[in-house]
Amino acid sequence: MTDLKTILEDKTLASKARTEALGNLILEGKLGVDEFVSGAGHMKDSFRGTLIEALELASKAQPEIITLDAFHFAVENLGHKAPRVRRESAKVIGNVAHLFSNKLDEAIKQLLINTEDSGTVVRWSAAYALGQIIQTAVPNRDELIEAVRAISERDEKNSIKKVYQAALKKVQQ
Description:
Strand content: under 5%
Radius of gyration: 16 Å
Number of domains: 1
Distance between the termini: 46 Å
Order of helices and strands: HHHHHHHHHH
Number of strands: 0
CATH topology: Leucine-rich Repeat Variant
Shape: globular
CATH class: Mainly Alpha
Structural class: mainly alpha
């Protein structure tokens, strides 16, 4: 845990470098994902955001590195007060949805709530995660596809609509 705290508190590292360093600790097996998650639960919001962003980086490169506890941690943080935490948690879920297809109910509920968020990046991340989820075999998939289609039509941002449309196109093929 010392490496984690040292990196988080290192003022000489830019934010992106800090995230990459933490992500690399996970990817290189120098810090276990569950240890990482247990440390993140006790951090202030800015550190928690950085930790979840590092989890997102790691899960994008190696989705299978995310444990069930880490997945649950991401789901729990979808409703966090900090937009950055909600955004990065959604991206983690999107990266690993195919690995946890039978455990997505709570994530889907919260992601649907996040589609109404005032923040564009939170809505975009929710769109990404929902787009990945509809491409997996989940219960009530057809209902979720219809909900995603409706959300896509009402969101005013083209960048978000494109995320939904790309996923919908893949499930229609």
